Amino acid sequence: MSISALFLIALEFKKQLTIETMSEETNEDLGDDLKDKAKKMADEASEKAGEFADDVKDSAKEFSDSAKEEWNKVTNSTDNKKMLAGLLAIFLGAFGIHKFILGYTKEGVIMLVATVILMIVTCGVFGWVVGIVGVIEGIMYLTKSDEEFYNTYQAGKKPWF
Q1: What is the maximum span of the chain, computed from C-alpha positions, in angstroms?
Q2: What is the mean pLDDT of residues 1-27?
């Protein structure tokens, strides 16, 4: 190999080295810029997520408060207890749910136990017998006036029919 060939190879090597050095410096500058932009965007996203979380918490609290208020209206109203007890007696009367709503725990337990025992002993064949009592009571609840229902079942505490 001649000296001129070695000189050309050395020049080419120096040129490549210079290009690589410049590329690395440019990449480092770009990398730093990208890192800064990414950090800035991550901070902004974190801030927005925090704001969104606060909004969700506020909305959930408002919903919870209004739900509690409505629940108190429903459970403290005699008219709504009549409707609730009547519908539960018709649809779930066999389990005595309507009795629990009206505060008749003993009678509710009696209906629930009777239904479960009849369903177990007869393999479900006669479980509907107690359900008929519930349907009859539900119809009676719904056909009474609000005042009559309140006086009979809530103030008067008449547990059966």
Answers
A1: 122
A2: 58
